[in-house]
């Protein structure tokens, strides 16, 4: 009997102690600041805002040079060797490009610094002046980072443009910033050639690839552009070295054009000091980040999350191995069957991600587990349930030796998908569902630091700490930021709300950017300087603060629609809840003030829907036909309703009708941003007829 009592009491005492310790730990604490009245917080570990973590370093150029001199012989930039490029034809006649990629080939810090110096000198020899701007228009790769650092070394402002940006937005960005030199890949050069007559100021084009498209010769022969290969610029610089022209902290390092969920993109002006502040703050949060770490880079460098991450990784002496979203894992769409994806070869220890990528990893794991079935599925489900109980503090036995056993028997196979060595993942760019966060955390055995920030704050805002096992929150203020909630009475969110204070999120600190390029009106609307000289950015997001000082995003002012009978629907909140359905690849909610219910456009997950159809014995010619079938729509809709109820959505928040779509929304089609966030207005226009029919 006594053994039984001990067996019950020990786990119970342990659980109570664990929960109490979590309650007692403060992560964000109130701070007295100026500006509009509200509830302001700072990071509890830092009494003043962090602007740099390196003594004597105030710019990204200085940080890079210092790190290269300190870590000279260590690997910095790695690129996979291309062995072959093949075309695979599917049963339906569609062809797909497949790549066979080899090992990583590396540049050390010393070699990378020499390459950057040569490129900077070559840029000057081409005739590019300091006061002129350079645009980098390419996918993420080592040359992108080299070009960025080369420009910084000459104090040249870099205009970053997503490789997937549409023609109108591309012309607008290049012309507005009066770019004279564009650095791009051969794929992007073809797009530029087609638009050459619409580009007013471009004089030089530097192509990262040796195979310059033949169509470019006509533009060069006309005398409008001088086209040079990336390698030739380096040779020119090596033969004609030029001294560095270092920037200062207040100089604009980057004009970053957002991919824009509405209208034309806005150019956010970031100083060296702005980006360095975020880099410095994140360094204090990620545990033991240093020269032993390997970072997998595959997100767009034109996105502030990736740009800040790579500058941080280079600043602490880690290695950066480049990949792409389409070659990330062994089963990625561009990887030749039987060969390895980027993660398997690189075996990274840290990586940044966006929710859409993590959702795919989760869905891929679940699909494999369900396909195996039998004992394998039962073992996985048991292991997952025990680890979940341990994290929630309700089962003592799933810690210690049992945890090691589950890791060995079950989760090691899941971890192999991303190389087997991941110890930390940063998720940003959009809200990460609690289901995905917990699933990835358990299966990969690594904490996910969910961050919150915007281009206008250089990705800096809040960041969840490594020992915070909660989900659905975005952490405490970064050491570079003050976070404040202010009342939004129209939406019903007040700092006097109980049990948690709520309101619009505004951010201040050295990471808050200068404003929008040539857009003073918009700048004045969302950037405000208080009586103490502190610059605040008004995000338009709505949050609530937990007792420990951590932030949770609960709404967005622009996404809230009032229905016919007065109920408010937060479209983004509902979408984040419903995308958990296994049948849903993407979803856009639509609410009309003249109706009492919502509807939704749903991009179907082809593998999940086809697997269901096969079990039902449904006959169809193609996936588009399958998505039109009444029984398919009913099945997907039932899943959405179930997920919505589990997420405790109100009845009016769950769509009354759906339109099932058979093809994905892509950034090339202008329906999602490069960070894979939906472009609500563009989708509304593209599917106006479908939305109208849902209200009939």
TrEMBL record:
<keyword id="KW-0436">Ligase</keyword>
<dbReference type="Pfam" id="PF00501">
    <property type="entry name" value="AMP-binding"/>
</dbReference>
<keyword id="KW-0547">Nucleotide-binding</keyword>
<dbReference type="InterPro" id="IPR042099">
    <property type="entry name" value="ANL_N_sf"/>
</dbReference>
<protein>
    <recommendedName>
        <fullName>AMP-dependent synthetase/ligase domain-containing protein</fullName>
    </recommendedName>
</protein>
<keyword id="KW-0067">ATP-binding</keyword>
<dbReference type="GO" id="GO:0005783">
    <property type="term" value="C:endoplasmic reticulum"/>
</dbReference>
<dbReference type="InterPro" id="IPR020845">
    <property type="entry name" value="AMP-binding_CS"/>
</dbReference>
<dbReference type="GO" id="GO:0004467">
    <property type="term" value="F:long-chain fatty acid-CoA ligase activity"/>
</dbReference>
<dbReference type="InterPro" id="IPR000873">
    <property type="entry name" value="AMP-dep_synth/lig_dom"/>
</dbReference>
<dbReference type="GO" id="GO:0005524">
    <property type="term" value="F:ATP binding"/>
</dbReference>
<feature type="signal peptide">
    <location>
        <begin position="1"/>
        <end position="15"/>
    </location>
</feature>
<dbReference type="GO" id="GO:0016020">
    <property type="term" value="C:membrane"/>
</dbReference>
<comment type="similarity">
    <text>Belongs to the ATP-dependent AMP-binding enzyme family.</text>
</comment>
<comment type="pathway">
    <text>Lipid metabolism; fatty acid metabolism.</text>
</comment>
<feature type="domain" description="AMP-dependent synthetase/ligase">
    <location>
        <begin position="99"/>
        <end position="517"/>
    </location>
</feature>
<keyword id="KW-0732">Signal</keyword>
């Amino acid at each position: 009997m006594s053994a039984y009592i001990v067996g019950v009491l020990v786990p119970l005492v342990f659980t109570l102690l664990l929960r109490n310790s979590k309650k007692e730990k403060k992560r964000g604490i109130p701070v007295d600041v100026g500006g509009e009245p509200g509830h302001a917080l700072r990071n509890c570990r830092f009494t003043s805002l962090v602007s740099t973590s390196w003594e004597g370093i105030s710019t990204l150029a200085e940080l890079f040079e210092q790190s290269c001199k300190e870590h000279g012989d260590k690997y910095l930039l790695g690129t996979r060797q291309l062995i072959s490029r093949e075309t695979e034809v599917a049963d339906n006649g569609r062809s797909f490009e497949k790549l066979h990629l080899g090992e990583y080939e590396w540049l050390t810090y010393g070699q990378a610094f020499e390459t950057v110096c040569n490129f900077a000198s070559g840029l000057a020899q081409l005739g590019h002046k300091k006061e002129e701007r350079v645009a980098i228009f390419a996918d993420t790769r080592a040359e992108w980072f080299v070009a960025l650092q080369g420009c910084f070394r000459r104090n040249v402002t870099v205009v970053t443009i997503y490789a997937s940006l549409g023609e109108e937005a591309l012309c607008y960005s290049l012309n507005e910033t009066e770019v004279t030199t564009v650095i791009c890949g051969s794929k992007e050069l073809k797009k530029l050639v087609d638009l050459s007559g619409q580009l007013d100021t471009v004089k030089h084009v530097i192509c990262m690839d040796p195979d310059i498209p033949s169509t470019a010769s006509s533009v060069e022969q006309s005398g409008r552009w001088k086209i040079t290969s990336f390698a030739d610029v380096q040779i020119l610089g090596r033969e004609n070295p030029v001294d560095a022209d270092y920037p200062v902290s207040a100089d604009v390092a980057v004009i970053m054009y957002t991919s824009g969920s509405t209208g034309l993109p806005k150019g956010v002006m970031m100083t060296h000091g702005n980006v360095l502040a975020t880099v410095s703050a994140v360094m204090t949060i990620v545990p033991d980040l240093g020269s032993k770490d390997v970072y997998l880079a595959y997100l767009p460098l034109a996105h502030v999350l990736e740009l800040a991450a790579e500058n941080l990784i280079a600043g602490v002496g880690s290695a950066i191995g480049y990949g792409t979203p389409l070659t990330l894992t062994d089963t990625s769409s561009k990887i030749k069957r039987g060969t390895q994806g980027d993660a398997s070869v690189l075996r990274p220890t840290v990586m940044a991600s966006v929710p859409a990528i993590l959702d795919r990893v989760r869905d891929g794991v679940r699909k494999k587990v369900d396909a195996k079935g039998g004992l394998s599925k039962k073992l996985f489900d048991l292991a997952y349930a025990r680890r979940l109980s341990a994290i929630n503090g309700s089962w003592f036995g799933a810690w210690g030796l049992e945890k090691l056993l589950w890791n060995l028997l079950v989760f090691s196979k899941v971890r192999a998908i991303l190389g087997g060595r991941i110890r930390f993942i940063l998720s940003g760019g959009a809200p990460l569902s609690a289901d995905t966060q917990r699933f990835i955390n358990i299966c990969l055995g690594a904490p996910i630091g969910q961050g919150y920030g915007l281009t206008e704050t250089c990705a800096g805002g809040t960041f969840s700490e490594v020992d915070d096992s909660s989900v659905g929150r975005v952490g405490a203020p970064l050491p570079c930021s003050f976070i404040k909630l202010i009342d939004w009475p129209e939406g019903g969110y007040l700092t006097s709300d109980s049990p948690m204070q709520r309101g619009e999120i505004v951010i201040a600190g050295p990471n808050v950017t200068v404003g929008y390029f040539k857009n003073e009106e918009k700048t004045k609307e969302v950037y405000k300087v208080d009586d103490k000289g502190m610059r605040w950015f008004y995000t338009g997001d709505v949050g609530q603060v937990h007792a420990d000082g951590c932030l949770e995003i609960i709404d967005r002012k622009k996404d809230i629609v009032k229905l016919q009978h007065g109920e408010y629907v937060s479209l983004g909140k509902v979408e984040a809840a419903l995308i958990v359905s296994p049948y849903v690849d993407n979803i856009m909610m639509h609410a009309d003030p003249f109706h009492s219910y919502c509807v939704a456009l749903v991009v179907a997950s082809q593998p999940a829907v086809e697997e269901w159809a096969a079990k039902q014995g449904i006959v169809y010619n193609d996936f588009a036909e399958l998505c039109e079938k009444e029984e398919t729509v009913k099945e997907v809709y039932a899943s959405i309703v179930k997920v919505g109820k589990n997420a405790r959505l109100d009845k009016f928040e769950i769509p009354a009708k759906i339109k099932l779509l058979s093809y994905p929304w892509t950034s090339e089609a202008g329906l999602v941003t490069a960070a894979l966030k939906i472009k609500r207005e563009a989708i509304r226009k593209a599917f106006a007829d479908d939305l109208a029919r849902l209200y009939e």
